[in-house]
Records
---
Amino acid sequence: MATTGARSDRRGTRERILDLAQAAVLRKSFANTSIDELIAGAEISRSGFFYHFKDKNALALALLQRYLDQHNAMIEALFVRADELHDDPLHSFLIAIKLFAENMEALPATHPGCVVAALCYHDQSHFDNVRALNAQGMVE
């Protein structure tokens, strides 16, 4: 049972690092976010950080993947809800668009910024895998 708690704690630490990184990136950019500030904020050792992310590029990749997963889940939920509200595919699609528009109206109050845009801004700072995931996320 202790193993499950340890795994949960590791996941919690990884998520805490990602939360801190996202807030810092949206506030001041990825380039201006240091590993040291994330270590201090998460109250972990340097080796604790590198246990979760092999380098800053791996952090960018994980941050972007998490953001895209959350975004895609939100879009999927809108279309599922629209399908629940109407059987006709066209009406369902129009409802989903309306739900999306309502979601976007609340965006300034509920969402501090866009990780995709923040990582695009310093595109040349990242390895090809971060640029490729960012491009793929925009196409999907």
---
Amino acid sequence: MGKRFVYFISSILIFILFIAFSYIVSTDILNQFDFDIAVKIQDDIPHKLDYFFSLLSLTGTIEVYLFILFLILALRRKLRGLFTIVIFMGSHVIELAGKAMLHHPGPPFLFFRYNIDLFFPSAYVKPGSSYPSGHSMRAAFIAIFLLFLVFKNKKLNLFHKYLITIPIILFSFGMFLSRISLGEHWTTDVIGGILLGTSAALLAISFDKSY
């Protein structure tokens, strides 16, 4: 009970941080910061990596992550894990509400570098604003949830746990970076998505009674 309470409180605190950060973003005080970082990243990342980041972006859709989450829960054979799905989908409601309520246009088309002629149906949902980043939110959610499962697994020694952690972190970082390098989102969108996804993941973990 003690550990679950810590996860729950942590979730609430990070969500409050998300709300506070969202307010700061709404004041447009970080617009120049967003623009400068986007230009810097796009200048430093060569166009030959656009295809790789576009593939990464394609795997970050809600369809793919929902499948991954169902697979994880199916392998765990935990019926109560369905509540994790509810929280995961609930975070998307908050994401869409943020995009509908907070006027924060995404990068102009001249920044756009996605170069794969393939889109999942969710790509056609355009609320109007770009804050927070759904891809970043999903990546943070799955990464936190997977790391939780890895480190509470008693069958893995510490070395194997850290070995599994590396690709999870690298994949997540690549997803966050792809949002900016492809001109899909600003840095503040990514930060907001990370905060929302982390909060949702910790909330889901706080209801996990398997430890």
